[in-house]
Amino acid sequence: MKTILRNVLAVIVGILVGSVVNMLIIQISSSIIPPPAGVDVTTEEGLKAGIHLFEPKHFIMPFLAHAIGTLVGALLTVLIAANNKMRLALTIGMVFFIGGAMMVNSVPGPIWFAVADLVFAYIPMGLLAAKIATKKEV
After folding, report:
1. What is the distance between the alpha carbons of residues 73 and 65, in angstroms, rounded to a whole number?
2. Model pTM above 0.90
3. Distance from the CA of 117 to the CA of which of 38, 51, 54, 126 falls in 20 to 30 A?
4. DSSP assignment letter at 52
C-alpha cells in the first residue's frame, strides 16, 4: 500500500510541477520572443484571433514550454516513484500529450507545429526523463 501511495504522489507532483514549469515558460516567452504587434497572447480568444500573424519563431517558446514542462514533471515523478518508473514517466508524458492535443484542438495553428509538438514534446520527454533518472538503457 505504501508503494502505491508513493507512486500516486509521484504522479501528482509530476503533473503539478510540470504544469507550473510549462506556465512559467509560457509567461516569460513574450519577453524573449515578442508576439506580433497587436496580438493578445494572454487569452485563448486573442491567440485564435492573431495566430495567423505568427511566424515560426513564435512557436519556439510554446514548444520548449511543453517539452521542458513534460521533462521536469516526468523526471520528478521518476525520482519520487517507488517502482514502475518507466510506466509512470510515460503516464506523465501521456497526461501532457492529452493537454497538448486539447490545446491544438482549441487554438488552431499551423499543422507543422501541431505535429512537431505532439510527436516530440511529450512521450519522448517522458522516455528521456526515465533514462536520465534511472541512468540505464530504456
Report:
1. 12
2. yes
3. 38
4. G
Query: For the chain, what is the radius of gyration of the CA atoms?
Result: 16
Residue 40, phi then psi, degrees to nearest 5: -90, 105
| Length, in residues, of the chain | 138
For residue 62, give Cα distances in angstroms to 18, 70, 104: 14, 12, 12
Domain extents in the chain = 2-134
Kindly write down the DSSP assignment for every residue of 84-121, as one continuous string: -HHHHHHHHHHHHHHHHHHHHHHS---HHHHHHHHHHS
Separation in Å, CA 61 to CA 13, 93, 128: 23, 19, 20
Rounded to 5 degrees, what angle do the CA atoms 89, 92, 98 make? 140
pLDDT of residue 2: 94
Nearest Cα residue to 79 out of 9, 138, 2, 16: 9
* Average pLDDT of the chain to the nearest whole number: 94
Residue for grid cell 519520487: 80
Q: What is the pLDDT of residues 61-91, one digit of tens each?
A: 999 999 999 999 999 999 999 999 999 999 9
